[in-house]
Amino acid sequence: MKKWAVALTSGMVMLSANAMAEEDTVHLYTWTEYVPEGLLDKFTEETGIKVEVSSLESNETMYAKLKIQGKDGGYDVIAPSNYFVSKMGREGMLLELDHSKLPVIKDLNPDWLDQAYDKGNKYSLPQLLGAPGIAFNTDDYQGSNFTSWSDLWKPEFKDSVQLLDDAREVFNIALLKLGQDPNTQDPEVIKAAYEELLKLRPNVLAFSSDNPANSFISGEVSVGQLWNGSVRIAKKEQAPVDMVFPKEGPVLWVDTLAIPANAKNPDGAHKLINYLLSAPVAEKLTLAIGYPTSNMKALDVLPKEITEDPAIYPPSEVLKTSHWQDDVGEAIELYEKYYQELKAAQ
């Protein structure tokens, strides 16, 4: 009897220790640049909760990892882009947020909330806004040289254009040029966009999404597709770079914070989300990486060189003509197929 009692007690102690370990740790799976050094220190000081960070490579990789994990879990907070929030929410992969544990919501930009991809912000809260435009070297060009995505097709840009290395981002510009919905799932329309991109291919020098500002900073590229956060990085390096949003508008994305349905520490996850979206943290993050923050209080204290730069913070007239990138379901396979063929084309 004593042996069983000892064994039972030991087992209970181990279970209790494991439970405490889970409560004392939050596993965050986010984009590498979104956690600059020291950003999480105060969270641990205030809550006693440690944060273990895993680097998110792509939405597709994140989705696949969560599918493989199943009920076992592994992450408590993730950072899916808005078009994956809708997909994962439909598939039961996300936990419904408890808004009573997220008082920071009142400080978030109402224009970013309650969007079609997550009505009522049932599963996610917006963190940072991405807006791709046409970037250019100001020593060589003026913003007036670029009014439409179709300008990138001009023969004068042969072997000189950089595109983002992302199927949807690249197809977006062709679809907008053709006057089509950038979220189309129509195979014929997608094929037409591919054929339009083949006409652009002679102008394409490179595809890059890994620190795409670097080629502008080094002077290797003087025209191309770039994200607003990347423009901020280039300007911080004193590079002669600026960016405009074409008349067709950019296709916007928002990186969000959400909790997987299989999270082991949902309470700690809510606390971390509230912290990451708070004004002081949001300010630090935007200063570090340039992307516009959803926190309105942070907006009030950020330097005007960021908030009043239309290449970084798209003005309201641009936002009104913008589109939101959305999930395209199984059509993504067709996009990816054509995209690989485009990259292989000469």
TrEMBL record:
It is found in: Periplasm. Transmembrane segments: none annotated. GO terms for cellular component: periplasmic space. Belongs to the bacterial solute-binding protein PotD/PotF family. It comes from Otariodibacter oris. One of its GO terms (biological process) is polyamine transport. Required for the activity of the bacterial periplasmic transport system of putrescine. The keyword Signal applies. Coiled coil: none annotated. Residues 1-21 form the signal peptide. Spermidine binds at E33, Y83, D166, A167, R168, E169, Q325. This is Putrescine-binding periplasmic protein. Keywords: Periplasm, Signal, Transport.
